[in-house]
Amino acid sequence: ANDSDLGPNGEIEYTLHQAIDPVPKLLRIDRSSGIIYVKGPLDREEINNLKFYVVARDKGPSPKSSKTYVSIDVTDQNDNAPAVEIRGIGLVTHSDGVANISEDMPVGTAVALVQVSDKDEGENAVVTCVVAGDVPFQLRPASDSSVDNKRKYFLQTTTPLDYERVRDYRVEIVAVDSGNPALSSTNSLKVQVTDTNDNSPVFSPTLFEVEFAEENQPGEKVVDVVASDADSGTNAELVYSIIADSSTRGLFEIDPSSGEVRARSPLDREHKERYEFRVTAADKGVPSHRGTATVVIKVLDRNDNDPKFMLSGYSFSVLENMPPLSPVGMVTVQDMDEGENAQVQLSVEPDVGKFVIQNGTGTILSSISFDREKESSYTFRLKAVDGGDPPRSSYVGVTINVLDENDNAPVVTKPSNSSFIRLSPMAAPDSVVEVVEAEDIDSGSNAELVYSIAGGNPHDLFYISPSNGEITLTKELTRKHSGLHRLVVKVSDRGKPSRHAIALVHIYVNETIANVSHVEALVGHSLYTPLDMDIAGDPDYGLAAQRSNIVYGSLAGVAGVVTVIVVVVFIRHRLQREAKSGYQAGKKETKDLYAPKQGPKSGKGRKGKKGKPPKSPKPLGEDEEVSLQKSLKFNLDGVNDSPRIHLPLTYPPGSPDLGRHYRSNSPLPSIQLQAQSPSASQKHQAVQELPAANTFVGTGGDDNSTGSD
User: Fold this and answer.
1) Distance CA 65, CA 54 (A)
2) Distance from C-alpha of 351 to C-alpha of 182, rounded to nearest angstrom
3) Does the pLDDT of residue 576 top 50, yes or no?
4) Nearest 5°: CA angle at 600, between 597 and 604?
5) What angle do CA 378, 382, 385 make, to 5 degrees?
6) How many CB atoms lie within 10 A of CB 78?
7) Can you spell out the DSSP letters for 105-165?
8) In sequence order, what are the residues at sequence separation of 6 or more whose Cβ sits closer than 8 angstroms to the Cβ of residue 149?
9) Of 267, 526, 528, 647, which one is least surrounded by beta carbons within 10 A?
10) In sequence order, what are the beta bridge partners of 491?
11) What pLDDT band is residue 652 in, cutting at 50, 70 and 90?
C-alpha cells in the first residue's frame, strides 16, 4: 500500500483481517512489508483455497486504513500415490483376496472389478493401470465416462484356463500416475482355477522345434505333433488345430486327426527364418477340454540368392597426389543367404594394376598416385562371388573421380608481358582499356580466378574487374598521364593455399604512335624495371612543370614591370599636357619667332643640296614621340584647337641651335591635313629632313606653320 503522508502518518502497518481458520494457522503477514508467508504445511487435498482481507493502517494520531481482498489458490503437488481397489464381480466369488473361477469359463470372463483413484488433480491424477507379468488376464475399462482421478476396469481372462496346466495365478495390478516424478502403487489378486473335467489333452513335449529347408514344395510335411488324454471314449478323442497369428496365418495347416503339420506354400528363409505358432488338442467331451503346444520352425538356408551390392553403382571422389595404397572408397555387399552361401569374395575387373580391394572390409585401395590433370576419372567393375555350390555372383560399376588439388598456378594467356596497347588521352572514364585473360588447369574453386592490380597504378587511373579481368579507365586523363603505364596485375586462384601469376599490362597514353620503336624500347626497359617501381605516365612532367612555373613567373614579372612603365609614362604625359606653356592662341608673338611664307600646296617638296629631292615625311611611333617631346620640351596639345605650333621661348642647355640651319627669311614647309585624314583625336606628325643631330616635329592644323631660330 502507498501513503502520501510523511513521518508516522506515512508509515504503514499490515494485518490480516477476517481471517478464519485455517488461515491464521497456515499464513502470517509481515506487519511492515506486507509480505505474506506460509506458516504451516499446506495440503491441497484438505483445503485448496484461502480467502481473507489484509488491512493497511498508518501510524498517525488518527490512523487511517484501507483493506484489500486476498484469495490464495493452493496448487497441487504429486504427493499422493494412486489407490488400487479390487472387488468381486458376477459369478466369480472372492474370499480373503482370492478369486475362484472355473476352468471352463470363456475367454474374456470378468474376474474382478478394479477401481483406481488418485487424490491429486490434473496430470498428477491421470493414472495408467496395467497387469504386470505374463498372465492370461487383462484390464478393460468398465465405462468411457470415468473421470481422470477415478477409473474402473474389469479384470478379465485373455486365454482359456486349464486346471491341469495351471491351477492358480497371482495377478499383480500396477497403477502409475502422470506426475513428475510419477508415483505408483500395486495391488494383487490370487486367481484359483477350479476343475470341471478330470483330464484334458496333454502334448508331450509342449514345444516342438524343427528345422525345415526353404524352397519346399507345397503340402510338404513339417512336423507331427501328438497329444494324449487320460480320459477315455469320446473324451479322449482329440482334434488338432492351429492357433495362428498374422505372421503364420495361411502358411501352415494341421491334420485334425493325426496332428501332422504341413507347409501350404514355399518358405523363404530370407523373408523369415523362424516361425512360431500354437496348436491345440481338444477332446470331444461335453464340455470339451483342450490342450496346447507350441511349434517353432527354423527355416534352413539354400544358396538361392546372388550377392547384392548395396548400391547399383558407386562413385567416389579422391584428392589427387595421394600416395599409393591409399583408401579411395568402400563398398558394401550382402548375401541374403547364410553360412558359406553368404561368404563373398571381391575382385576388380578388369584388373590393370591400378586398384585393389580388401575382402572383408570392402575397401578399395589405389596402387598409383593420381594426377587429375592427366586423368580425372577411372571406371571399372567389382565382382562379388559367394561360397555356395554352385557359386552365385554379381557385378557393380565403380567410378573414381579425382578431385583437384591446387597444384597448378594460373597462366596468363593475354596480354603478353612485352606487348602494349595505345590509349587516347581523350578516352572517357569507364571505357574498357584491356582484358586480362588467364586459365588454370585445376578445377572447382582452385580454378576460380581473381584479378587485382598489385602495382603501377599510383594515380588510380585504372580498375580491373576481379571476376573477368576487364581493365577500365576510372577518371579523365591529363597531360601528366601521357606516356607509358605499366600495370602489375596479380591473378590468384581461390585454392587453399592460393596460387597466383603476375602479368604486365603496358598502356601507352598518346594521341598516336609516331615512333613504335620508341614505345617498344620503353616496354623493353619496363621488363627490367623492378615491380615495386611505378611506371605511370611522363616521367619528365614534374620537371617540365617546374620549368614552366619559372618561365611563367619570369614573364609575369616582366609584364608587371612593363605595365608600371607604361602607367608612369602615361601619367607623366598627361601632366605635361596640363602644364601648357609658349604661344597661346590669339596672342602675337614678338620674340625670336619667324612667320614663314605659305608653302606651295602641291605635294612636291623643295630640292635640297646636290639636287636631291627632300625625303618625304614619315610617321613616328609613340615611343619616338615621347622621346622627342622630352628633348625639345614642347607639347602637342591643341592640335585640333590651334593652327600654330607652340615652342618654348627658353631652351634648356644642349638644345639644338636651329638658327645655324635656318635663316629668318627661310620659309618652313607647311604640313597639310587633308580632308580624308584620320579623326581629330589622332595625332599626325611629319619629320623634316634635318641634320642628324636635330629633328623638327610639326603638327598639321592649317596651311600656315611657324618656325624659330
Assistant:
1) 10
2) 66
3) yes
4) 135
5) 170
6) 19
7) PPTT-EEEEEEEE-SS-GGGG-EEEEEESS-SEEEEES-S---TTEEEEEEEESS---TTT
8) 117, 118, 119, 120, 121, 125, 126, 127
9) 528
10) 451, 501
11) very low
DSSP 372: T
Question: Nearest CA to 76 among 202, 178, 207?
Answer: 178
Predicted confidence at residue 640, as pLDDT, reads: 41
Q: Which residues pair with 386 in a beta bridge?
A: 344
Grid look-up 505333433 returns: 225
Between 23-37, 235-249, 533-547, 634-648, the lowest mean confidence (pLDDT) is in 634-648
Half-sphere exposure of 615 toward its Cβ, with a 13 Å CA cutoff? Answer: 9
The CA distance from 481 to 479, in Å, is 5
Measured between alpha carbons, how far is 388 from 474 in angstroms, rounded to an integer?
79
Render 424-454 in DSSP notation, one character per residue: -TTPPTT-EEEE-EEE-SS-GGGG-EEEEEE
pLDDT > 90? residue 262: yes
CA 476 – CA 462 distance, rounded (Å): 10
Q: Return the residue matching grid coordinates 477476517.
A: 18
Cell of 174: 500396477
CA 237 from centre of chain: 84
CA gap 232, 188 in Å, rounded: 39
Q: What is the DSSP letter of 255?
A: -
Q: How far apart are CA 653 and CA 311, in angstroms?
A: 133
Beta partners for residue 523, in sequence order? none
Backbone dihedral angles phi then psi of residue 625, each to the nearest 5 degrees: -65, -45
562: amino acid identity, one letter: V
Furthest C-alpha separation in the chain: 205
C-alpha 427/C-alpha 442 separation (Å) is: 37
Buried b (16+ CB within 10 A) or exposed e, 563-593: eeeeeeeeeebeebeeeeebbeeeeebeeeb
pLDDT of residue 492: 93
Extract the C-alpha cell encoding 158.
485373455
* CA distance linking residue 56 with residue 2, whole number of Å: 9
Least confident of 487-491, 578-582, 599-603: 599-603
Half-sphere exposure of 27 (CA within 13 A, CB side): 25
Q: Measuring CA to CA, which residue among 144, 209, 148 is closest to residue 175?
A: 148
Q: Give the chain's radius of gyration (CA, Å).
A: 67
Query: How many CB atoms within 10 Å of residue 363?
Result: 15
From CA 184, how far away is CA 178, in angstroms rounded? 9
Q: Kindly report the number of other CB atoms within 10 A of residue 5's CB atom.
A: 13
Cα separation values, 404 from 205, 413, 448, 509, 689, Å = 70, 21, 12, 42, 107
User: pTM for the whole thing?
Assistant: 0.37
Pairing assessment for the beta strands 313-319 and 393-403 based on DSSP bridges: parallel
Residue with cell 565382382: 383
CA 539 and chain centroid, separation: 45
| Contact partners, residue 213, CB within 8 Å, separation at least 6 | 299, 300, 302
Q: Is 420 exposed, middle or buried (0-12, 13-18, 19+ CB in 10 A)?
A: buried
Tell me what percent of the chain is helix, strand and coil, each rounded to the nearest 5: 15, 35, 50
Return the pLDDT at 628.
34
Rounded Cα distance between 542 and 384, Å, is 82
By C-alpha distance, which of 486, 471, 322 is closest to 418? 486
Residue with cell 586459365: 439
